Amino acid sequence: MEASGQLYLDLLEKVVTNMIYGDAPTPNAWVPETSFTREHRENGLDWPSTAHTMVGLKRIRNVRHCLEQALADGVAGDFIETGVWRGGVCIFARGILKAHGVSDRRVWLADSFEGIPDTGPDGHPMDQEMALHQSNEVLGVSMETVRDNFARYDLLDDQVQFLPGWFEDTLPTAPVEKLAVMRLDGDLYSSTMDALVNLYPKLSPGGFVIIDDYVIPACRKAVEEFRETEGIEDPLEAIDDYSVFWRRGA
């Protein structure tokens, strides 16, 4: 890729996280601050009022690392994110493909586009889960809004595919053939397990699994149980204090 492409991606990662203008965060039960701080935005510690992603600069750069490594190594498959909010991560992933001149891979967006489900008791840690859906006025972003966000970047095309609905309904029959990178940001035990069970078998050897919410006990429990059940020993690597990823072995 030419230097101009690298500069485009350097700028795009700052735009989707809005490190440039530094919009004020939306205060909530977990992050009550009302003023932008660079440290919080770098580490994905706030809920931006304007930015198209809340994952922060470190996690955006991890997406770039994983996807560009997969491209460089010829790992077959698409990119998917489960839980997309305003679409910023997937916008960035589509930008990476465009900057590299890749026209035969897709970016899949799986989301309810209604927010977090009220799962009810199911025998798994529920404190985080039961609280998150109470913030759906912020967390629930419509598919039309996400499509409009893609269009703002001139990145809405047939390489961008939407999977609207609850994961338990959409992922088992999703028309995804192979994956090179799967990024899970569903917060809950059930959402994380649904994604792992249905998508990991489609992940090519050498592909990457990114877990945004590993700090949440319910999410971590799902990851640990799945890895143990499947005998996965590929090492977990920290992205920041909240998220991890691993690369699938042969």
UniProtKB/TrEMBL annotation:
InterPro entries, alphabetized: SAM-dependent_MTases_sf, TylF_MeTrfase
Gene Ontology molecular functions: metal ion binding; methyltransferase activity
The protein's annotated pathway: Antibiotic biosynthesis
Transmembrane stretches, start-end: none
Keyword Methyltransferase: yes
Keywords, sorted A to Z: Antibiotic biosynthesis, Magnesium, Metal-binding, Methyltransferase, S-adenosyl-L-methionine, Transferase
Protein family according to the UniProt entry: Belongs to the methyltransferase TylF/MycF family.
Name of this protein: Class I SAM-dependent methyltransferase
Organism field: Amycolatopsis dendrobii
